[in-house]
Amino acid sequence: MVRCYLPTPDKSLKCPTDVKADDDGNIYVVGRMSHNIHMLSPEGKFIKLFLSEKDRIHRPYFLSFNKDFSQVMVCCDMDDKFSSDGGLNIKLFDMI
C-alpha cells in the first residue's frame, strides 16, 4: 500500500532527506530546509513535529535510532546560530 503525506502550511516540510520508522511503526521524516522532523502514524497521518529548530537542529540530514529505540541521533549542520565554528553536528535525543 502506498500512502502520501501532504503537510499543511502550518506544518512545513521542505526538502525531505530521510525517512525512518520506529518499532511501533511511526514514521519520521527529516525536513532539511524546514529544520524539523515530522512524526507520522503508521497510516501516514501527522502526529506532531518531533524535533524542530527550537531543539537546536539546523538543516538536519538524517536520523538513526539506537537498538532499543530509546534514543534518536540526528545529524545536522551547525551555523552561527548554534556554533561559532560551523560544520556538522550529531545530536542525541531521548525518546519520550
From TrEMBL:
The lineage of its organism: Eukaryota, Metazoa, Spiralia, Lophotrochozoa, Mollusca. InterPro entries: 6-blade_b-propeller_TolB-like (IPR011042). Gene3D superfamilies: TolB, C-terminal domain. This is Uncharacterized protein.
